[in-house]
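Table 4 source record.
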Amino acid sequence: MANTFVNGDYKMDYSNYGISSVKARELYASGKGNIQVDSTAKTTLDIIKENVFTYFNLIFFIMAVLLILSGAFNSLTFLPVIICNSLIGIFQEIKAKKILDKLNVLNQSTAVAIRDGEEDVIPINRLVEGDYIVLTSGSQICADAVVVEGEISVNEALLTGEADEINKVKDSELMSGSFVVSGKCIAKLTRVGADSYISKLMLKAKNMSKALKSEMVKSIDYIVIAAGILIIPIGTALFCQSVFVQGNSFSESIPSVVAALIGMIPEGLYLLLSITLGLSTIRLAKQKVMFHDMRSIETLARVDTICVDKTGTITDNSMLVADAVLASNEDDNELFDATCRLLSEYLGCLPDDNITMHALEDYFGFTTSRSCVSFKPFSSKYKYSSVEFDDCRYVLGAPEFILREEIINYQDTIDGYTQKGLRVLCFAEYDGDAEGVLDGKLAHPIMFITLQNPIRDAAFDTFKYFEKQGVDVKVISGDNPITVSEVAKKAGIKNYDKYVDASTLNDGDIPFAVKEMTVFGRVSPEQKQKIVRALKKNGHTVAMTGDGVNDILAMKDADCSVAMASGSEAAVQAAQVVLLDSDFSHMPKIVAEGRRDINNIERTATLFLVKNIFSLLLAVFSIINVLIYPLQPSQITIVSLVNIGIPGFFLAMEPNNKRIEGHFLVKVLLKAMPAALTDFFAIAALVVFSNTFGVDQTDVSVAATFLLAIVGFIILANISSPLNTYRFRVILGCMIGFVFGAIFFNDLFSITYVSKPCIMLFVLFAIATEPCMRYLTKLFRIIELKFQINFFKK
């Protein structure tokens, strides 16, 4: 097969390869298409099932049937709330799904296939078994294949964990999910869709979904599971105690049992989670931010260290040649022109397709008039490319890696450029074998070429935001550390002057370096990964941004990975978050959105736990003391609405940029305990005193409802501190709503006039709730502080 160069690109003769468009359509129709398996995708039917057929909805259905059988129809007030919860959850998730589906279409991965003898860019899910595709540097291998022409270096780390670059020649097998580091080839697809290696891995990943859940989601799962386990024995014990011990009828026992169970069920937590994350997805989608994984919203909110690549993140993706000078510093126009022609011939022999190559081709041009014996594309691992002609060998790349010890003779020249933030390449003649690793033989520099990337307009403001939010920035780049430091300075990155040449570091130096240094230059892809691992081992939550294949290993190990859509296809596919317009200035918005979600869900989860813990304690108290549970289902419903549901929804909409610290479950438990215990002590004491003074059970339930609401508003005010106008209006509105419901819908919510003795007891315990709440809050703040100290010591 003859290889040619067209418009500066390395082209292959496709006359003997490829299938026809008609044949491709036939194969696709017969089920041989490369339909992608997505371990996270949900269908509309999946969403409906998840929101309707739940364990708690089954419990609610059983309780509704029992209430109907007992004739307690006014206790069914919880049913409209549950139905609305399910409908809102379904609507919100479907809306978010539609928006994400649209973004997926906009960002759909494509491949270059050979159809009808021509290159054709085709979405990867429209490829078929037997298709021939063209793979170049940065390509993600989308289905299992075999090389039929050409040569590439492949990284299979995402599949095997091994970071070595593997050379693939004719007849070599390619595994889907790996990516091309360098070179160019034609490959024939052998296994597509569900039969491919990556699809089988993703199907296995479905069974591991629990391990991938974020801390917040896992914490909410624990709460829901605990409630789900406890309601069965508690409900059974309450019913048996009421019927068989106290001798109450079925109709008298069921409402009190249902009230206890409703109080123990955190029915709105999942709804709150899905609505909050769904709204965040929609808001960020409007900013052209796409999530491959929803848990990334939470992870980014917890990030305290962000690792960024220089090119494509701090700077934009364009690159220009700033200058080219002879290494000898001679003012020889003939020699300069001859070297430029030589470089043009050199570039004409390489299949590299990256922004550096494009910048060099724009400046020096290219020619295919001279044939080469062999070539080695640029490798981020070795930092150079090479070409061998009949009579000589040449290399082009980082001066440190090409000149080795001889660099000292040119250090002043190189430093002069790097201190201006310019990237320097060395073009040299090489005495040894140009293929593989430079073997230590002399390289004779001919020309130094400097390149520059414009810094992104919003870079300075973005990094100042991270500094203000207490997020450390680490710049990790393959370029000269002095160059990267200068770029970091211009971008406003704190401690830009703390830089190190990573090529001088061994594995044992990296843990110390990540503590002291901000800028890492001459970093290999494997070192990027080790830097991220070292940061995580030091207890940091790490985000990694990148756009090239050299960033993928580090992105894979980071807590959250962010890719620029304009970067390599492999990086985009490996990332959890994709910036579709490649604008790094969106990062503060993503972090702020995640912090809003976690802080507001944490606040509302505290309200849910107050009700759940109180109801559990009161149910156990009633069982032990052989008492009827003092509240009715409709009374629990109105309190839940004004203390939890309505304020939780509105407070979740509020911006909240507070930095995320501590363990979600521990924090919400410790914040909920003062109010839950205050509720329990007050209502348990009210029940005991009421029984002593012969107060009617109906009066007790009404007084308990008001006590529960009062403590609820106190904890609502506490967790909303400091109060602003918005929060004050939400709480005041809920108070007015409670009073309105108690007056105008008193029958619906089982609120009746009470006796004077009951009013006196209510006033007494209502006054006592404030100091009780205040002192318990102080106690649990001390406990929380001690827990945090011990946690950070570990």
